[in-house]
Amino acid sequence: MTLNSKARASRWLTLASYTGLLILFTLWYLLIAPAKSEHPWVIWLIHIVPLLAFLPVVWRGYPRGHAWLCFVLLLYFMEAVLAAFNPMTRWLGLVESALLVILFTGAMMFARWQSKVNRGLA
Known about the structure:
By secondary structure, the protein is mostly helical. It has one domain (3-121). 85% of the residues lie in helices and 0% in strands. It has 5 helices and no strands. It has helices spanning 3-32, 40-52, 55-60, 63-85, 90-121. The longest helix is centred in the C-terminal third of the chain and has 32 residues, at 90-121. The chain starts with a helix and ends with a helix.
């Protein structure tokens, strides 16, 4: 496989898992297990807004932005592991962990391969 095809495959993997994570958070915090308060959308916003800040980066395919996304995903991963240990949210935590691992790996490899492609063209 060439670097271009590797970068393209990792970009699609990143886009798919990024979208899946946004959908999971929306379903989890608004429908499946909303917070026991009057405003469950606040918890949803706390989870969604940092990810949505990276939407232009992921959409346009900037390698440096993908690398920064990986740093932010580490915080989400810690929360996902804690949710996986809680019997009430075990399956949601496991799904979130899996999506985060796929997203982290895809974004990291896209940043690496696309940077090499960009340097080769410069």
